[in-house]
């Protein structure tokens, strides 16, 4: 799972005029450490003479850099461990517990019926 800001990459509109528009849209929606990372990477940006902004040449360049920094390399292992160690807390609602377990199961790359 990608850390903060990752859901931005999954909820974007389908089409854009230019790659720069797509990158600017993502940059505007990032928060916390993802936003800090985005703003701190001026050296990875290329000038765009039309808008005056400077950005990555392609959206794929931005995405590749973002994943390299924010991806959790141990995600599957951690999710499997969480599946084994998780239990329902005394005050925890069953729907919250089931939702949490489904998330762990999905991240562990297991089929839904294996949960």
Question: In summary, what is this structure?
Answer:
With 115 residues, this protein is mainly alpha-helical.
Major β-sheet strand ordering: 1-2
> Structural class of the secondary structure composition?
mainly alpha
Shape: elongated
List the secondary-structure elements in sequence, H or E: HHEEHHH
Radius of gyration: 18 Å
Features:
two-stranded antiparallel sheet, 115 residues, single chain, 2 domains
Give an account of the 3D structure.
The chain has 5 helices and 2 strands, in the order ααββααα. The protein is mostly helical and 115 residues long. It has 2 domains: 6-70, no CATH class; 75-114. The protein has a two-stranded antiparallel sheet with strand order 1-2. The longest helix has 14 residues, at 94-107.
Produce the secondary structure layout.
Layout: H1 19-29, H2 32-40, E1 46-47, E2 54-55, H3 59-70, H4 75-85, H5 94-107
Antiparallel strand pairs: 1-2
Helix pairs in contact: 4-5
């Amino acid at each position: 799972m990608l850390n903060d800001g990752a859901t931005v990459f999954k909820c974007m509109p389908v089409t854009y005029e230019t790659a720069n528009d797509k990158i600017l849209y993502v940059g505007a929606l990032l928060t916390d450490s993802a936003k800090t990372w985005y703003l701190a990477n001026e050296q990875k940006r290329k000038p765009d003479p039309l808008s005056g902004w400077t950005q990555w040449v392609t959206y794929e360049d931005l995405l590749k850099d973002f994943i390299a920094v924010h991806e959790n390399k141990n995600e599957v292992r951690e999710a499997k461990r969480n599946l084994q160690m998780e239990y329902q807390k005394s005050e925890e609602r069953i729907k919250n517990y089931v939702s949490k377990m489904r998330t762990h199961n999905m991240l562990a790359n297991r089929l839904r019926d294996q949960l």
